[in-house]
């Protein structure tokens, strides 16, 4: 339960950061550092970051985002699958 709440919050944050950075780029304002965007995705927000990238057409030409974020999402899905398998295997 706690994991699901964490994942919901971190993915919402990653999505919001992508949206916010895109708006800042359009207005030529101070930008959110790439390490923050990637760090949030790596911390579990890869789905939110990917959805934000696609919906706002943001960072889609940068390989570290266009390749890295989907790879992170795949890794997160694999980790969740392993966790579920492990927890259900014990019971």
Would you kindly provide a written description of the structure presented here, covering whatever features stand out?
The structure is a single chain. The protein has 91 residues and is mainly alpha-helical. Helix content is 82%, strand content 0%. The chain contains 4 helices and no strands. The protein has helices at residues 2-26, 34-56, 63-66, 68-90. Helix 1 (2-26) crosses helix 2 (34-56) and helix 2 (34-56) crosses helix 4. The longest helix is centred in the first third of the chain and has 25 residues, at 2-26. The radius of gyration is 15 Å and the shape is elongated. The model has no long low-confidence stretch (mean pLDDT 95).
What is the N-to-C succession of helices and strands? HHHH
For the secondary structure, the number of strands is 0
The unreliable regions are: none
Rg for CA atoms: 15 Å
Q: Which structural class do the helices and strands define?
A: mainly alpha
What's the shape? elongated
Strand content: under 5%
Q: How does the major sheet shape up? A: none
